[in-house]
Amino acid sequence: MIIDAHQHFWQPLRGDYGWMPEDNPTLNRAYAPKDLLPILTRHNIGGTILVQAAPSVEETEYMLGLADGCDAILGVVGWIDFETPSQRQTLARLSQHPKFLGVRPMIQDIPDVNWMLRADIQWAFESICQLDLSFDALGFPQHLPNFLTLAKRYPEMRTVYDHCMKPQIRDAMAGQDAFTEWAQGITALANIGSGYCKFSGLITEAREGWTKADLKPFSDHILQSFGADRVMWGSDWPVCRLKGEYDVWLSAAQSLTAHLTPLEQAKVFGQNARNFYHLR
Fold first, then answer.
1. Is the pTM of this model over 0.70?
2. Cβ atoms 21, 28 nearer than 8 A
3. Alpha helices in 43-200 (DSSP H)
4. pLDDT (tens digit, 0 to 9) for every residue of the chain, 280 residues total?
5. CATH class of domain segment(s) 2-276
6. How far apart are CA 248 and CA 261, in angstroms?
7. What are phi and psi of 156, to 5 degrees?
């Protein structure tokens, strides 16, 4: 079964999507299961992982409500406030929901690149481990050294690195070296532990008019570093729509993994997500 390991639903009228540009008609609109289900059916995709897009527990509860009413949502990655230790109880409560999988702090939006290493938020990582939940690591290449520190500090934590850690493919397309430092960081992460990587978000980091050739050095490095056993495909829909529709990115991803064996492709496009997230 194909599993989309990373997608979003949201309702801007909720008022907790502070990052969302008000003048962007692609993003600033409601997205609900009814918008995605026909696409999943068309591509024979059996289910998805719904990931938080707002820094609020209320949005997490909203997503769990969607999951209760939609069999295609296999699990939910939510959010808690890492700066509020009393939310250990909130995390424990959420963990009782059969479709709650783990959390994702929005690290890419936090100005302090060293935020994740602050002593006062380590309780959250410890709680993730104690409750056997997952940690979706969202960041940019500049966060790679600190994610490496976390991986060493919490080797038992089930971590997946979102969107290939957002290599700046648009800069590479402009002739800049956006590969070397990113690739070194990715290799280090892959070599020290059991972390997974989401094969998603690449087209969003590219320029308009991107081609598969622009993506290939980055996708090849992810597959070589993590191996087909620790890479999972995700659409990042509807964010992907900024640079290409669901069908376009899925087709590109299938082409970029065409050199893998059928078994390896099955892992990347479903089995690895099932294993990592302990899907029921």
1. yes
2. yes
3. 57-68, 87-94, 122-130, 144-153, 169-173, 180-192
4. 999 999 999 999 999 999 999 999 999 999 999 999 999 999 999 999 999 999 999 999 999 999 999 999 999 999 999 999 999 999 999 999 999 999 999 999 999 999 999 999 999 999 999 999 999 999 999 999 999 999 999 999 999 999 999 999 999 999 999 999 999 999 999 999 889 999 999 999 999 999 999 999 999 999 999 999 999 999 999 999 999 999 999 999 999 999 999 999 999 999 999 999 999 7
5. alpha beta
6. 22
7. -85, -10
